[in-house]
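Hi support team,

I submitted a single chain yesterday and got back a structure, but I'm not sure I'm reading the token output correctly. Could someone confirm the output below corresponds to the sequence I sent? I've pasted both exactly as they appear in my results page.

Thanks,
R.
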Amino acid sequence: MIVHLIDGTYELFRQFYGRRHFSKGKDERFGAVSGVLHSILEMIETGATHVGVATDHVIESFRNDLWPDYKTGEGIEPGLLAQFHPLEESLTAIGVVVWPMIELEADDALASAAQIASGDQRVEKVCIWTPDKDLAQCVRGDRVVQVDRKGKTIRNAAGVREKFGVEPKLIPDFLALVGDTADGYPGIAGIGAVTAARLLNQYGAIETFPLTVLGEQRDRALLFKTLATLRTDAPLFHDVDELRWRGPTGAFAAWTERLGDARLLERARKM
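Hi R., thanks for writing in. Yes, this is the structure output for that exact sequence:
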């Protein structure tokens, strides 16, 4: 079997701003939610059987306690933020397993789910559907891959090495050095992508760098590595069979009425 793990928060953002482009700036109340549901039904129509969706139930996580400038919900448009929880509830109604994260982030849930699923010998491949570079650390050979729906690319371990210049396991170190503006930490001054890759390939993980390489910036780099390292210990499920899609629940009809999208129900019932 192939297990599909989806970054629901990213997909909601993608649908919200993608639809705005075509609606000339007029946002539908639940347009982004409908868009995500349709995209997941399309996956199921084309053969996906085991699906899990991770969401940020709240934007803040334990990382905000470690670094005050870590990303928050500040600046997210109200029309988008208002669709976070309806997405979770409607996904549950359509029969898809959802992991709404509070202390951890959606990325941590994806990393944890990939860890659990890849440990099952029945699983041929785990596909993590997000372009987020953080998730590149979860890639393992051709068994756990990262799928960029927008860029239409599938990135295996060789693809990670080609893009970043380092092995997947060194992605947290790489991001610690170069920074991640989306997550709100700056990296180490004077170290860009090329230099970071060279240092990591020469010395290995930051912990094994000679003390003279980073000097006074070593502790800062290790902090950023902690921010970049995804948790893989979230107890999301015990058996991949829990992720099998078995059709919409009885609550989904009411949700399609609330969303104002009867086509969703028709589409789900056909499968």
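A quick pointer for reading it: DSSP finds 13 helices and six strands in the chain. Let us know if anything else looks off.

Best,
Support desk
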